[in-house]
Amino acid sequence: MSEINRAVKGTNDILPSDSHNWQFVEGKMLEIAKLYGFNEIRVPVFEHTEVFLRSVGDTTDVVQKEMYTFDDKGGRSITLRPELTAGVIRSAIENGLVNAALPVKVCYIGGCYRYEKPQAGRLREFHQFGVECIGSAEPSADAEVIALAGQVLADIGVKKISLEINSIGCPECRKAYHAALKEYFASNKDKLCGTCLDRLERNPMRILDCKSPVCSGIAAGAPVVLDYLCDDCKAHFESVKEYLKAMGISYTVNPHIVRGLDYYTRTVFEFVSGDIGAQSTVCGGGRYDGLIAQMGGPQVPSLGFGMGIERLMLVLKSQNAELPKAQKPDLYIAPLDRSARLKAAELCAKLRAEGYKTETDLCARGLKAQMKFADKIGAKFSLVLGEDEITLKKAKIKNMLDGEITEINLDKIEEDFGEIIREQIFKNIAEVI
RNA sequence: GUGGAUGUAGCUUAGUUGGUUAAAGCGCCGGUUUGUGGCACCGGAGACCGUGGGUUCAAGUCCCAUCUUCCACCCCA
């Protein structure tokens, strides 16, 4: 296959046979966000590169090796967003949202871009739903954001997923913790793997989630962040847990979850699924009290999360979750000749204006082929349109499920067909009861 | 970026120790006396065998490279 027939590595098409699932999922996300008071914000797909260097952090892998960065024709360094928080915060500062009535609660859905080696649940273009709650330092905000994520997952139909939370403290208490960690791991220096030796200098907290059995064995005995939190951070974390309990949200504290973006402080959390392989984090987020100030705004505490929609889809698929079926046409009109096709177009227009999903022949096919087609697209009813029907202004509507035939008046097709549809609905309700 | 697997019609696959026009099922299109689908039967379209080199009289089958997808690592949603 040549390049013009092939999608770029790590990108995916969402086909018509699947897009209604995406529409359902995204619809639910926006709906529940709204329920919690988070309204949608839309920001550009690309930003000045500096936006991500400042926020995500220039020592992170995301910035160092995964960004799609290029110079535009005006000589600006531009980067396709690797995540959405940075752009949203930039916009909040630029548009004065941080000076509005706080907290400002926003949500978003959009594509993100990271140059990584693709595998299941990890694409170069992927989609995230997320929220940001700007302007509250209170534990109640942490709990509300976590609750929102949990409800989205549950309402979409995820059956099994676990919430893990942790606190990584403020910059002050992290200093003490880093020192303790370095001391601990330095005494086991000879046993650590190569990458962990490197981490020991740059970011010792990352050793905690190394998958190598040797390192994780050593990490099991390492000092725990929670023991090094300052009084304020400790109280904050305790309070978050109290709120979660009050809201009936179950969680486990996992002192080993460490988020890879530099801006996180205090609460961090993940929703993890055991059903989709190694890329198991479906949703990740936390508090970032220093980020807005760091990006040139006022000192305003905030938090949020990002949810990977592709990963969520994988979870739903592997759990055989029941998603709503695609909408089928109400009526297929099968014209027999040229003039009937013209009449069919007229009838379609009338019915569609009334909101009935109506289709007709666009391929000039014979009757039999049209009936097959009507069956394949799942039309609920069909109508054959020939000379007789047009001159008599009467036609037969056939129920494609049971073959039942009802005669209607073509001049008032909207009314007559509406009646048939209503009867059908009553019949369905009666069956359910 | 590292390591391992994969690649034949839209989909799922067959293709024997390299040998004449690369098979099948599903799907798609059409037909079975010309105005009614789902079943059955018949027919048709559709594949430069991922791509590029090489070995050979001869390669889908062997060798090399490259790309894609998948799995694990790194990292993250």
Describe the structure.
It contains 15 helices and 16 strands. An eight-stranded mixed β-sheet has the order 1-5-6-11-10-9-7-8. Strands 13-12-14-15-16 form a five-stranded mixed β-sheet, with helices on both faces. The chain has a three-stranded antiparallel β-sheet with strand order 2-4-3. The chain has helices at residues 16-35, 49-55, 61-65, 85-94, 139-156, 171-186, 194-202, 213-220, 231-246, 291-294, 309-318, 338-353, 367-376, 387-392, 413-432; strands spanning 39-40, 46-48, 69-71, 77-80, 104-113, 125-134, 162-167, 252-253, 265-272, 281-287, 302-308, 331-335, 358-360, 381-385, 394-399, 405-409. The chain folds into two domains: 3-170 and 230-318, BirA Bifunctional Protein, domain 2 (2-Layer Sandwich); 331-423, Rossmann fold (3-Layer(aba) Sandwich). It is 40% helix and 20% strand. A hairpin with a 5-residue loop joins strand 15 (394-399) and strand 16 (405-409). The protein has 433 residues and is an alpha+beta fold. It is elongated, with a radius of gyration of 28 Å. The mean pLDDT is 92. Helix 1 runs antiparallel to helix 5 and helix 5 packs parallel to helix 9. It binds one RNA strand of 77 nucleotides through residues 1-2, 6, 9, 60-62, 65-66, 82-83, 112, 114, 116-122, 126-130, 195, 206, 211-212, 259-261, 270, 277-279, 281-284, 305-312, 334, 336, 366-376, 379, 382, 384, 386, 388, 396, 398, 400, 403.
